[in-house]
């Protein structure tokens, strides 16, 4: 069912058919599954599927498709799929199983997801995610994922931001690692069976399309430098998000947007690129030349109380600041949710305190330079005992102690907001297919069901739902109705794509300027954090567009790549990624400037309530913005209207 266009929509917006099922939400996904075409097991053996990315979404999709009988190629830039960044997720995975007996349900998880995203996601997708969540836990338990358990043997749950129930399943602070290992062992089983070909150490640098249909990718082998062409009958992108546009983020240093940007330039529209989440609980930066930031799980906010000195510029040790002189600002603003408000809200309120001069840590606290807050476990330790806190968060607290040199049991943790997750991504319909036929996008790489802000512990849920459940059904349905001839490396489209990538590499190698990749990237990151971070406003966004254009010119005129006598060229790889980040930064700024409202993590200072909360404009912006790349011209903005039948949009109140 195609959503009706808004009054101000252009005719081109009719191309954004989300393929939403008609009828009641509660049975929409099951009815969709019944109607999807199938392919016989014998015929699946003659079809090849290419998966880019080996994280939770990619590994689970590849393993499941291979189990069904497809021949599967998996492209990853890691030396092992076990190193995908999903391994770094800490806190847990949401599921509506009501093990805590506190009233949780599929309906409650669905409503929390829609509200948490500030009513900027499709109802049908959010409901499907809530439906699938319970099956994912059962599947992972069957794989041997060591979830925490209660004394009686039942799976344990804890709370996360944006919810008043305990629905988050966890494996201490290593949930992403354990879930990834479960998916990877399933993947390696298929490698051993000969149904999966694992292509490690490959950077995807272009998407191959034949007659407008995605048929493969061009990769650069990181060890040999060779350009390779890999083709298939369908392509799945599961390459993660783009928070490293900010240079310093919680993402791994090599996490990048190249696969997404290649697809975007080939015709895949990019949805809501300005929806980027700044996580409130990270270890503060140790200096300008740090390479990445470290996440401290949101689960710590279950037991830790967030506070700052009441008096601006108070640089006394925390133990010397009495209770009466402490500002528990989240509990003060939000007495119902307290420290477990959603991430965007917690980060924004922390920034307000920094600007008021209450920040702690290095910097001039009196002028608002300090960018840290205290996360204090003292009350929980006194209540439950040190052993209980160590059992819940032991590895997280060990990591904090090693990085900072401070004992989190002796003094409060010092945390700060940092770029973390990107809700934007390539536009996909209900079947996870992009605007390029045959190109499916999974996990954080698509714009997903998280709207303008992702609830904590929902990323792992979405990645596994896309990979284990949704894509195996919808990819099969598309292949059943779109038979494709074989395409080999000698096909003109493949040769043209390789030639274009080679020309791009030659151009960057020949510039011979004086600016380093890291220096330019650091400048871009600081700029984006300033004008398109926790808070945005029109003048800053316009300035950002001008400065990104200047950085892009410097990149092409003054880039310096070292001359190395080896095919292993780390600086070239970083330069290719930075070029894509520059293009993406421009698109993020345009998207933020065009969205004249505040919603979720997109906080436009011009649009806020008297109490400082985000002020949505449902009359004009209750839609998904999808951007079409136009070579040599300004990108074009299209819209997909959002309709709500089960949840009525309302002010997002966590008080």
Question: How would you describe this structure to a colleague?
Answer:
This protein has 655 residues and is of the alpha+beta class. 36% of the residues lie in helices and 15% in strands. The chain is built from 17 helices and 20 strands. The protein has helices at residues 28-35, 41-44, 56-68, 106-116, 123-143, 175-193, 258-265, 329-333, 343-355, 378-384, 386-404, 459-481, 492-510, 517-531, 538-558, 570-594, 618-621; strands at residues 48-52, 71-75, 93-94, 168-169, 196-199, 202-210, 213-221, 227-231, 234-237, 270-271, 276-283, 294-295, 305-309, 326-327, 373-376, 413-422, 425-426, 439-441, 623-628, 636-641. Strands 12-11-16-15-13-14 form a six-stranded antiparallel β-sheet. A five-stranded parallel β-sheet has the order 5-2-1-9-18. It has a four-stranded antiparallel β-sheet with strand order 17-10-19-20. A hairpin with a 7-residue loop joins strand 19 and strand 20. It is globular.
Give descriptors for this structure.
655 residues, alpha+beta, 36% helix, six-stranded antiparallel β-sheet, 15% strand, disordered N terminus
How would the blueprint of this fold be written?
Elements: H1 28-35, H2 41-44, E1 48-52, H3 56-68, E2 71-75, E3 93-94, H4 106-116, H5 123-143, E4 168-169, H6 175-193, E5 196-199, E6 202-210, E7 213-221, E8 227-231, E9 234-237, H7 258-265, E10 270-271, E11 276-283, E12 294-295, E13 305-309, E14 326-327, H8 329-333, H9 343-355, E15 373-376, H10 378-384, H11 386-404, E16 413-422, E17 425-426, E18 439-441, H12 459-481, H13 492-510, H14 517-531, H15 538-558, H16 570-594, H17 618-621, E19 623-628, E20 636-641
Parallel strand pairs: 1-2, 1-9, 2-5, 9-18
Antiparallel strand pairs: 3-4, 6-7, 7-8, 10-17, 10-19, 11-12, 11-16, 13-14, 13-15, 15-16, 19-20
């Amino acid at each position: 069912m195609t959503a009706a266009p808004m009054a101000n929509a252009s005719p081109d917006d009719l191309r954004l058919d989300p393929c939403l099922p008609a009828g009641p939400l509660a049975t929409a996904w099951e009815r969709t599954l019944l109607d999807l075409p199938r392919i016989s097991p014998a015929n699946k053996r003659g079809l090849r599927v290419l998966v880019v990315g080996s994280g939770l979404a990619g590994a689970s999709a590849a393993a499941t498709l291979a189990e069904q009988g497809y021949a599967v190629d998996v492209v990853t830039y890691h030396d092992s799929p076990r190193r995908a960044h999903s391994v770094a997720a800490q806190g847990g995975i949401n599921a509506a199983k009501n093990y805590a007996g506190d009233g949780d349900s599929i309906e409650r998880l669905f409503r929390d997801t829609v509200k948490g995203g500030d009513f900027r996601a499709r109802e049908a997708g959010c409901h499907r995610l809530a439906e699938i969540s319970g099956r994912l836990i059962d599947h992972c338990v069957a794989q041997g994922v060591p979830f925490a358990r209660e004394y009686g043997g039942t799976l344990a749950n804890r709370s996360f931001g944006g919810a008043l129930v305990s629905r988050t399943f966890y494996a201490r602070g290593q949930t992403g690692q354990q879930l990834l290992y479960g998916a990877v062992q399933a993947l390696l089983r298929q490698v051993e069976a000969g149904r999966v070909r694992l292509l490690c150490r490959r950077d995807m640098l272009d998407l191959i399309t034949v007659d407008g249909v995605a048929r493969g990718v061009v990769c650069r082998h990181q060890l040999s430098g060779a350009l390779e062409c890999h083709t298939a009958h369908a392509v799945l992108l599961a390459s993660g998000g783009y928070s490293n546009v900010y240079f310093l983020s919680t993402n791994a240093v090599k996490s990048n947007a190249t696969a997404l940007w290649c697809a975007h330039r080939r015709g895949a529209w990019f949805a809501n690129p300005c929806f980027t989440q700044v996580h409130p609980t990270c270890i503060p930066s140790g200096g300008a030349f740090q390479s990445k930031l470290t996440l401290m799980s949101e689960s710590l906010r279950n037991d830790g109380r967030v506070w700052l000195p009441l008096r601006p510029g108070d640089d006394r040790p925390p133990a010397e600041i009495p209770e009466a002189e402490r500002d528990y600002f989240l509990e003060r603003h939000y007495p119902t949710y307290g420290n477990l408000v959603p991430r965007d809200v917690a980060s924004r309120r922390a920034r307000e305190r920094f600007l008021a001069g209450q920040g702690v840590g290095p910097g001039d606290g009196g002028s608002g330079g300090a960018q840290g807050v205290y996360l204090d476990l003292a009350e929980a330790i006194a209540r439950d005992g040190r052993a209980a806190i160590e059992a819940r968060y032991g590895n997280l607290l060990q990591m904090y102690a090693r990085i900072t040199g401070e004992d989190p049991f002796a003094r409060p943790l010092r945390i700060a907001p940092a770029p973390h997750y990107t809700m934007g991504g390539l536009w996909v319909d209900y079947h996870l297919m992009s605007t390029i036929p045959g190109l499916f996008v999974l996990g954080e790489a698509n714009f997903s069901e998280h709207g303008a802000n992702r609830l904590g512990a929902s990323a792992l849920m979405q990645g596994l739902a896309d990979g284990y459940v949704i894509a195996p059904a919808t990819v099969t349905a598309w292949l059943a109705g779109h038979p494709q001839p074989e395409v080999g490396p000698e096909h003109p489209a493949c040769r043209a794509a390789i030639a274009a990538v080679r020309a791009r590499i030659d151009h960057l190698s020949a510039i011979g300027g004086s600016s380093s990749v890291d220096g330019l990237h650091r400048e871009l990151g600081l700029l984006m954090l300033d004008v398109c971070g926790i808070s945005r406003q029109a003048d800053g966004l316009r300035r950002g567009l001008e400065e990104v254009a200047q950085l892009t010119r410097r990149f092409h005129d003054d880039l310096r790549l070292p001359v190395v006598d080896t095919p292993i060229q780390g600086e070239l790889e970083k330069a290719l990624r930075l070029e894509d980040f520059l293009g993406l930064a421009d698109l993020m700024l345009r998207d933020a400037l065009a969205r004249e409202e505040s919603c979720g993590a997109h906080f436009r200072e011009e649009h806020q309530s008297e109490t400082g909360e985000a002020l949505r404009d449902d009359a004009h912006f209750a839609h998904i913005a999808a951007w079409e790349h136009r070579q040599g011209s300004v990108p074009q903005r299209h819209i997909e209207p959002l309709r709500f039948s089960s949840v009525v949009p309302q002010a997002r109140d966590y008080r």
